[in-house]
Amino acid sequence: MPFQLDHRLANDTYPVQDTPEYLLLMMNERRYPWFIVVPKVPNVTEWHELTRRQQTDIHLFCVKLGESIKQAFSVTKINTAALGNVVSQLHIHVIGRHPEDDAWPNPVWGFAPPAQAMDQATKEHRIESLTRQFNLTQT
What we know:
By secondary structure, the chain is an alpha+beta fold.
């Protein structure tokens, strides 16, 4: 079966980069610079289901992504997590945080009020800022 992005991830995010190995998405949430890495491996729900090479590549990509988010958005903390309790498809959240954000010091998941969508200018600015910092090729 070919790789297919879970419809909930597709509905809640914007594409940033699409490579043969992974998708880089940006969550449609204006309060946090929140990115999601999805390995393009069909039917994978857990890290241990990836090959060692895939694990290493995705890990190093997420580390570099976190460094780039910290620089591009002047955040003080990077949260990196792969939960998968609602969307079981393996995906890794890499989120920039700071003590003044709405959810601090708690996790952003399940935070009330609900997500606050980005306007077009914010979306474009975030993608451009990350692309410039991370030397990405935009989708």
